[in-house]
Amino acid sequence: MGAWPVRWAGAATAAYGVGILVRPALMARPCGLDDEDGSVPVATALLIRAVGARDLANGLAMLAAKEGSALRAATVCRVVSDLGDAVLFGTQLPDPAARRKAAAVAGGWGALCAVAGLASRSVRK
């Protein structure tokens, strides 16, 4: 199998990064970090946008990296970022239900990207 699973995961990652850069509420609401009126506090929006910039960069790297070690490194960076998110959001968010949900989503994306990397012959070179 070629690089398309990793490229697809990279495109999805980049799209999500752009989404939360533009609308931090896309991440704030499921994490329980929005205010009662649905608005996102300025400091929270800033940090979510930083995650969005990271995800955009990771996704673009997965899309643009040459096959082999560069693509493997881009994929590993994405997986490690997701696993870090799963641990941090899964243990530090104020609401227990949001912790479980955020950990499951972040861990799921990390697992998906890891499987995409393992399935891609282009990453294993």
From TrEMBL:
Classification via InterPro entries: DUF4267
Superkingdom to which the source organism belongs: Bacteria
Pfam families: DUF4267 (PF14087)
Protein name per Swiss-Prot or TrEMBL: DUF4267 domain-containing protein
Organism in which the protein naturally occurs: Streptomyces pakalii
